[in-house]
Design brief:
It is built from 2 helices and 8 strands. By secondary structure, it is of the alpha+beta class. The chain has a 4-stranded antiparallel β-sheet, with no helix packed on it. Strands 1-8 form a two-stranded antiparallel ribbon.
């Protein structure tokens, strides 16, 4: 009876040791990723062709001298000169009010920033592989020991039942 209890305790201890060593954690391949931000600033100088509007102001001048009659005109002004009864010359200059378009080139700075964001994270990937010979031995050995222990236990149980009859 004592040997049966001792054998069952030993078989339980062996079974526990084998079951603990037979288990294997799956091998995982880790891929670590992190966030990063990169900003690029680009400055461009652009030449813009533009037109400046200049308003010619109204200018009126009167001058009196002793001389002959004259009349002048151009695209900006009219001028009249005449001799008065007392022998003096009266001169009038009248500019035409107008707007003049003057083409010119101006520079503009264009500033553009491009943001590059890279998001990286850790991904666990399960990798399939063949079991090593030790892992296969542990798996098969567990079932072999379990079946041997079951046969021994049944044999002793049947033997005990037969001896009681």
């Amino acid at each position: 009876m004592r040997t049966l209890i001792l054998a069952s305790k030993v078989s339980i201890i062996v079974w526990m040791i084998w079951s603990l060593t037979a288990c294997c954690q799956p091998k995982l391949l880790g891929d670590y990723k992190q966030d990063s931000v990169r900003v690029e600033v680009v400055e461009n100088i652009v030449y813009v062709h533009d037109t400046l509007i200049y308003e010619v102001p109204l200018i009126k001048e009167v001058q009196t001298v002793r001389d002959t009659i004259s009349h002048l005109t151009n695209k900006y002004a009219d001028s009249w000169a005449s001799v008065g009864s007392d022998g003096t010359l009266s001169h009038t200059l009248l500019t035409r009010p107008q707007r003049i378009a003057i083409p010119y080139e101006r520079t503009e700075k264009h500033r553009d920033s491009i943001v590059y964001r890279t998001t990286e994270k850790q991904v666990m990937v399960e990798v399939e592989r063949n079991l090593s010979w030790w892992e296969q031995t542990q798996i098969r050995g567990f079932w072999a020991i379990l079946s041997i222990l079951t046969i021994i236990f049944l044999w002793k149980w049947i033997k005990r039942k037969i001896s009681l009859l």
